[in-house]
Amino acid sequence: GITVRTGLLWWTVAIHLLTSMTMVWLSVLLYVKIGEPDDGVPRRRVARPLRALTALIGADLAAVLVTGTLVTAAGPHAGDRSPSRTVPRLKVEIDTLVHAHSSLLVAYLALLVGLGFGLLAVGASRPLLLRLGVLLALVCAQAGVGTAQYFTGVPAALVAVHVAGAAACTAATAALWASMRERVLGRAEPEPVAR
After folding, report:
1. Which class for 20: exposed (0-12), middle (13-18), buried (19 or more C-beta within 10 A)?
2. In which element (H, E) is residue 14 found?
3. Are 10 and 66 within 8 A, CB to CB?
4. Distance CA 174, CA 29 (A)
5. Strands, DSSP E only, in the chain?
6. Can you list the alpha helix ranges (DSSP code H) found in 35-79?
7. What is the distance between the alpha carbons of residues 15 and 192, in angstroms, rounded to a whole number?
8. Are strands 181-184 and 41-44 parallel, antiparallel or unpaired?
9. In this predicted structure, what is the pLDDT of residue 80?
10. What is the C-alpha separation between 67 and 70, in angstroms, rounded?
11. pLDDT number for residue 190
12. Are 127 and 179 in contact (CB under 8 A)?
């Protein structure tokens, strides 16, 4: 569409990716919602501090995605090594952006590990821990792809893999966030407390 018609200008590619990741997040929330009873009542699965930490993880993911689009924007290509035309790139030193992106990724990973300890401490359910485990595995794989991109000159094929990984991490983070509460038949239960 518009992104291609503008010749893959960096800012249109960034907007396209961020809009797509927002749609992935919302799609996961919709998927979770349709699996719940319409007349159910919300029940929190974990205490407020762990839900707040999960919201912080989501915000950090957003920052990782934004800086990721900036790294791509300043990189050698927009994912298509077209020799016939040069696509204007973001005029910012790529190493600075890579360090910002990777620092936010490390923070994201640290927050996930912290959440894991918190969930274990309160005896969280197996499905919650499983979602966190899947997300941790995806994030580590995504970090490996990003590192490989950096040290191999950003091969176009790895750009596609990294975008797919970003979508998978976004979906898994949304699923984790959504699993902090559920809608069940019956009456509302009191808020879980931190132990």
Report:
1. middle
2. helix 10-34
3. no
4. 7
5. 41-44, 181-184
6. 48-74
7. 39
8. antiparallel
9. 58
10. 5
11. 60
12. yes
Residue 68's Cβ-count burial label (10 Å; 0-12, 13-18, 19+) is buried
Q: What are phi and psi of 44, to 5 degrees?
A: -80, 135
List the beta bridge partners of residue 43.
182
Can you give the C-alpha Rg of the chain in angstroms?
19
Q: Which residues of the chain have pLDDT under 50?
A: none
Instruction: Specify which residues 181 forms β-bridges with.
Output: 44
The whole-angstrom separation of Cα 48 and Cα 44 is 9
**Residues contacting residue 140 through CB under 8 Å, at least 6 positions apart:** 109
Please give the C-alpha separations between residue 154 and each of 59, 63, 69, 194, in angstroms, as whole numbers: 26, 21, 14, 45
Report the alpha-carbon distance of residue 71 to residue 88 in Å, rounded.
14
Q: Which amino acid is at 157?
A: A
Dist. CA 5–CA 19, nearest whole Å: 17
DSSP state of 190: P
Question: At 143, which amino acid appears?
Answer: A
d(CA 27, CA 7): 28
